[in-house]
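BUG: 3D viewer hangs when loading the predicted structure for this chain

Environment: internal workstation, default settings.
Expected: structure renders.
Actual: progress bar stalls at 90%.

Input used:
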Amino acid sequence: MGDDRQATFGSDGSLDTETPPEAREGTTDWGEPKGDGETDGGYNRYDVSSLLQKAVRRSDEEVAAWAAWELARSGYAWNLWDRLHLYVVEDLRAGQDVALLVERYETLANERWDPKSWKGRLCAIHAALACARAQSSREASNADEFFRNAARARADVRDTDDDPAVDFPVGDFETGGTYDVAFDKHTAEGSRLGRGDGFFKRFGARVGPEGEDEQSARWQRLNMALSDVEYDDDEIAHAVEPVHPNQRWADPVEFGAESGDGDEPEERQRDGNDA
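Structure tokens produced before the viewer hung:
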């Protein structure tokens, strides 16, 4: 007996091995022919698919589990997995490990077992529950929409003297501005400015605001001490100092041209608020 043919006992005590309703191909639970896009329970699969995503977005575990089960048992497992993969990129806070779990459950359901089977349905329920329990957020979708709106606003005033209604967070993004540190030896403009290893170590390689752990900071200090570029104690300390949470792009002005980097102009003040 297959895993979809689990034995049950009737009211008279006799063993009932009749194939359960969900295993009858092409019919609903009450034996009627299924229409296009109809689930075994008589629902529209597009509606159930939409419900699944709304349920995991709102962290409704029971509804999410049912919607996943209904799609899987009705032969629409592909629709289920497509929705769950969409969810993890559209409605999930970045960094949630559930994205990897969904991939694993799908692999088990589709490659090891029949997605309509008992084991396949369990994978569907597990995946839906994992998604519903994860931290939902529309941050990626909201960011994408905002960046597209900003791009249109910038384009609308491209040949005028007006400022865009909204702009990209980096503004014009040019040397001397807030994000000047990005123009280091890894960019053509940074190379033209003579910003070599010294500039990168002191400014471009800083992390934060949590900062380096002590071992990593120790290695960085030793690397700078052993470098062909000469650094004073303040420069080494600054290189491993966490960036300030309110001024992530700030760097001091007192560091001048660095030895070994060629003719590098003196760094201008970058206080994190320059236009």
